[in-house]
Design a protein that fits this description.
This protein is of the alpha+beta class. It is built from four helices and twelve strands; from the N terminus they run αβββββαββββαβββα.
Length: 236
Amino acid sequence: MKTSAIAARGLLFLLGACATVRPPADPPLGFIEDGFPSSGTCRTEWPAHLPDVFPRGAFALTLLPWLEAEFNDAREQEIMRCWCSGMLRALKEGPLLPLAPGVEVYRFTWIPSSRESLVIRIENLGPVHSLHVKVSGMEEGTLTVDRRILLTPTQWQAVRQHLEAARFWSMDRFFTPRSVAYLDGARWLFEGGREGRYRMLSIHSPDPEGPARPIHDLGAFLVELSGVTLASGRLY
């Protein structure tokens, strides 16, 4: 992943850093608004009809490694929604919406430019806390890992602490885009649902040394909790 010079980063930090970024009024932005049902079937970018996994507007905003915000037009949103839906369907995952009553659920999907993809889904239903992890295989539609484990109350609280540190439910301030080209990396998707609300964050390889560090730490903690060893050796 290509990054800017250290001096440029320092200048960006000194210049004030974050700004409140307001989304377009339509379509609604799944990241900072309540969730909307899946809109139907992806038809334009795939040869076959592919059921949606993500709600309408979920990809209106994309974040870059230093929390720079980029808005996507309608075509870009459709491409990302259909492509990421295809990746999750390959991991044998479906939509989080509609939310079951009383359930709190989070899902982390890691889609690198090469190697395997990974998804970790954590659910809380009353006194039961569980983690389900899946890793894609070399052949399409296969999984090398597909297991579910129970979490202790202490582990569940640790998940919530990492979510709070990452400001998953409250983040609304981001850096303005810079003239930096990111040529490699991975797509990180974080989804959450609780009390009838849904939120999705899409970020490209959050920088562990920058303002996106709590987001990177959240993903790394979930992988550690799952017990999975990545072929790449690390998240990037």
